[in-house]
Amino acid sequence: MIDLIDVTKSYGKGLPALNHANLHVDKGEFVFVVGSSGSGKSTMIKLLLKEIDSTSGQIIVSGEQLEGMKHRRIPKFRRKLGVVFQDFRLLKDRNVYENVAFAQHVINRPSRVIRKRVPEVLQEVGLAGKYKSFPDELSGGEQQRVALARALVNRPDILLADEPTGNLDPRTSLEIMELLEQINDRGTTVLVVTHNREIVNIMRKRVVTVQNGIIVSDEKEGTYHEA
Ligand code: ADP
Ligand code: MG
User: Fold this and answer.
1) Is the domain defined by 1-80+156-227 classed in CATH 3.40.50.2000?
2) What's the 169 CA to ligand 1 centre distance in angstroms?
3) I want to staple 62 with a disulfide (CB 3.0 to 4.6 A). Which of 80, 132, 150, 218 is the partner?
C-alpha cells in the first residue's frame, strides 16, 4: 500500500530531512512512526501526500508512483488518502455536518449520496447527535473526531495522521488512538506519526523509529524507545 524505496528529501543545505529511507506498509496494516522533533516524520507524511517531491528515490502509494505524476492527476490521487493533523484544521464557521459534507461537495458527490454518507461516518467516529455544533463548541477530542470523519467520508485506502493527539490530554488521546484502531479494523491502512510514548507502548503495533532522517528501527509489536 505504501513503498518508500531509498527515499531522500533535502530542503537545502545541511543534513537531509529524510535520508535513504526504506519502508514497506501492506494493505490493512497499522503503523506508528515515532521520533523526536525534527527527525523527519512530517516530511514523510508530506511526501506521501505529494505535497512535496523527494530529492531521490521512489515512492509508491496505493499503486501509484509519485515521481513524475502529472499535476492534474494529483487531486484524484489524494482522494485515496485521508489525513488528519494535530491542529484539526476544521472550518470554524461551519457546523460538524457541514465540515464533513464539504469534503464531498468539493468532489461533486450527489446530494443524495452525501445525505446518506455523512451521518454514517459521523456515527462511526462517535459523533451522532453533534451535527449542529460548531468547532468552538466542541472539546479537542470531539474536534479531532470531526476531522477524522472528514478524512474518512470518501472511504480512503490509507489514513495518515500527523501527531493526531498532540493537542489532547492523555485520556482523550487514548480514545482517539482506539478510534484509529477501529478504523484500521474496518480495513483502512493507518499510518500515525506520534510523540506519544505512553500510547505507543500500550497499543502494541508496528513501530518505525526515525532519527535525524534515518529509519533506525522497525519493530512488529514494538515500543517507543530511543534507538
Ligand atoms: P518532524 O515532523 O519529525 O518534527 P520535519 O519533517 O518537520 O520533522 O522536519 C525534519 C527536518 O527538516 C527538520 O530539520 C526541519 O527543520 C527541516 N524542514 C522541514 N520542513 C522544511 C522546509 N520547508 N524548509 C527547510 N527545512 C525544513
Ligand atoms: Mg512534525
Assistant:
1) no
2) 25
3) 80
